Amino acid sequence: MMVAFGYHGANFHGSQIQPDVRTVQGEIKGAIEKLGWWSESCLEMSSRTDSGVSVRMNLATILLPKKIAKIIDEASLVSALNDHLPEDLVVWRACRVPEGTRSRIAEKRLYVYRCDMIPGWPTELEFDELKSACNLFVGQHDFTNFCRLDSNRSPIRIIESCKPLQDGAGRVVGFTVVADSFLWNQIRRMASALHKFVKKDIRLDDITLALDNPNEPFDLGLAPANGLILWSLGHSEFSHKFENLEIIEGISMPPEGKRAHRQWLNLARMENSSILEREWLRLILDV
Hints:
The protein contains seven helices and ten strands.
């Protein structure tokens, strides 16, 4: 079976299982164990996320015991898992897939970054101004200067789209980015570069130079994890279709001043949680 699930990132020390700390994979493993279905290597998660990163949709494949796999339907699997999962982690869809299907091999992933959660993001920003910077990331690039390098992974990635994100009032509050896979800290470093650009700390040419010269170090910063949400995945074997996002509803405008913004961040985090809860409820009910 393949399942779609989401979680509030602030409550977990990342997605991958680690000793002595609470992780998403650890909680799912615990639920499967309580159901008596656990076996070694029966669980594979699609996208890995850092501590603080929230997720509307991630995917995982679960290899069930054969006697269970024969009789359980998708809705019953969702209910059984949720009965043993904490409230901040929810499975909202299941789909029967061929044995051996890899959840890691997604066709594309969409991330959302709320840049207004970074202090100093302008409350009035032209859509086309941010779009001009977002466009620089589209296509194939070496993202050495926009990631934490992993010796086992190529820094070359193909970005399908990178677009400004607006709220219901038309205010530009961040961006969305789509690719089949991303590098460690890639989107948070892209967010920091875009933030510096709209604040006039850097120019478009600086982003271009960082992309075109991977052997020359450029440090354009690392944005906080709490503004990042994994929104949607597309997988050839999963029934739920990929969903784009152009407008984000239900968020407030940040106040001026560092101290006020720091206090407002508590509200912004609650807004993000409310958005996710509404989405999970909609998806569970298939509205």
